[in-house]
Design brief:
The protein is of the alpha/beta class. The protein has 14 helices and eleven strands. The strands form two sheets. The protein has a six-stranded parallel beta sheet, with helices on both faces. A five-stranded parallel beta sheet has the order 8-7-9-10-11, with helices on both faces. Helix 8 (206-216) crosses helix 12. The radius of gyration is 21 Å and the shape is globular.
């Protein structure tokens, strides 16, 4: 039987009080490790002075991780570039195992955000694309990082895409599923407010939903659309009383937005191009988010009282739970298997 680790370095891009991204994830893993008597050292990229230019910032971060790695069993980086690159270099110099948690695709996102064609993530690597110099660096840099680390995916769907795109060694690929929280006591909506909150990025496809609602309000004048990006706690409060949740993104790897909607008993419409866990794929309405008419029809389905009630009942019967303890066990197991 493998011994429990004594010290783990968490190389986090964001960490409370800074919110967003994987801040909550890193905080929860840190808390779980400490509760087990494991020394957890968090090195947060977000704590570095903002005045530092990127290259210098990475160098400073490298030295912080390097010092923290002394006596550590392994290092977990929570993204590929801000924390993954310095952590992998530390690993190569010290012989420490490094795992990079991969919950998104930076290259695909960069391509979409710079005005590239709206293309689904599942299709992105199937054809050659004209890349900028920065995007070529991202591709080859990512390939190098993955070669010298353990890839920890939160979606088997993305893992399959990347194994083909980057030629990953399957022996150095792991899948650690996201948390599925306990069901909250569902609250009825006083108004028909649909949440379509995102980061304000192009790939979230919010303008399409706004067009749909401008048209639908002629027939359903009582409906409202909330696209505001709010801090986590404020978002949780509005989630309790909203009518439904919309996720019109071009693609989503493993959206916590939908997991949270299910936890609060809220019906949802979600893109079909997603690595959403199989448990949740049986719930909600899944449509091609690049088909505006199909997305409109799905919203109208939820505006039908009988269909809406049916969706709420299906979600209400969902009972799958996965805790932070489960996630932490899986992460530790990844390195124990690697060292076996």
């Amino acid at each position: 039987m493998n011994e429990a680790p004594k010290k783990i370095v968490l190389a986090a891009g964001l960490f409370p009080p800074v919110t967003g991204g994987h801040s909550k994830y890193a905080e929860a893993i840190d808390r779980e490790l400490v509760s087990r008597g494991i020394e957890s050292v968090v090195i947060a990229y977000s704590e570095l002075p903002t005045r530092l230019p990127p290259g210098i910032k990475h160098l400073v971060y490298f030295f912080k991780v390097f010092r923290a790695s002394r006596g550590a069993d392994f290092i977990i980086a929570f993204d590929t570039w801000s924390t993954g690159l310095p952590s992998v270099i530390v690993g190569l110099l010290t012989g420490k195992k490094v795992g990079i948690r991969i919950g998104g695709d930076y290259l695909w996102e960069s391509y979409i955000e710079r005005g590239g064609t709206f293309i689904k993530l599942s299709e992105f690597y199937k054809s050659a694309r004209k890349k900028t110099f920065k995007e070529r660096i991202i591709f080859w840099g990512t390939k190098w990082l993955l070669k010298h680390s353990i890839s920890i995916f939160n979606s088997e769907w993305l893992s399959t895409i990347w194994q083909k795109a980057y030629g990953l060694d399957t022996k150095r690929v792991a899948y650690v599923e996201n948390v599925f929280p306990d069901k909250k006591t569902p609250m009825s909506a006083s108004k028909r407010v649909f949440l379509a909150a995102g980061r304000g990025s192009r790939l979230k496809n919010i303008p399409m939903v706004e067009r749909i609602f401008d048209s639908l309000k002629r027939t359903y004048p009582d409906i409202e659309l909330d696209t505001r990006s709010l801090p986590f706690r404020e978002h949780q409060e509005r989630l309790k009383t909203c009518y439904a949740v919309l996720l019109p993104s071009v693609s989503e790897v493993n959206p916590n937005t939908i997991i949270e909607a299910v936890a609060h008993g809220k019906p949802f419409v979600c893109t079909t191009d997603t690595g959403l866990n199989a448990h949740v794929k049986s719930l909600g309405l899944h449509v091609d988010s690049l088909d505006e008419q199909a997305f409109r029809m799905a919203i109208e389905t939820l505006l039908d009282e009988k269909q809406y009630t049916l969706e709420r009942e299906r979600i209400g019967a969902f009972s799958y739970v996965r805790t932070w303890a489960d996630v932490t066990n899986d992460i530790i197991s990844v390195f124990q298997v690697e060292n076996a």
